[in-house]
Amino acid sequence: MIHIKNNSNKLIIVVHEIYGVNRYMKEVCHSLSEKGLDILCPNLLEKESSFDYFLEEAAYKNFMENVGFSKGANKIKNVIQDIKGQYEKIFIVGFSVGATIAWLCSEEKDVDGIVCYYGSRIRNYLEINPSCPTILFYPENENSFHVDELIDSLERKNLEVHKFSGEHGFSDPYNPKFNVKSAQETFNIMIDFLA
């Protein structure tokens, strides 16, 4: 777990991908803390080391068998319940499976906003209507579904959806699918939203 305190009245809960709290998640936490925000990144995998990207299948299998979306969301909801009295505002920023977990927490009354990076499994939970401001970032291309179809079904909800150049993982400089322009644009939108 990463916990960075800046004596802010805002807490950002960062929810990692299938790989765990890796170098990229640490950098996201550090970048957000540089903006004066308090950061918490729970280790949902509960293991010391993260998975390497070339172990994507093993990482996905481990996540689905040992964490899953419901259990992951319950862990984040428990964190929120434990810490809510210490902050005026709590935001969740999730990446991939972490974005879907953030989505599953978006109806919680103590969540003030969520940012979701390429949450492909959100398509399985379209019955959810976020009760907080919500921003979703998607790439142009996803292997497992049609991005435009999902965006069409999401735009009926009261939230912001953006599509960027690149593929799943575009914001991660350690991922071969990194897209520097899309990463910078999404980061700037996210910072404005959290401010």
TrEMBL record:
Molecular function per GO: hydrolase activity
Keywords: Hydrolase
Highest taxon in the source lineage: Bacteria
Domain Dienelactone hydrolase as annotated: residue spans: 7-194
SUPFAM superfamilies xref list: alpha/beta-Hydrolases
UniProt-recorded name of the protein: Dienelactone hydrolase family protein
Organism of this sequence: Lysinibacillus telephonicus
Lineage: Bacteria, Bacillati, Bacillota, Bacilli, Bacillales
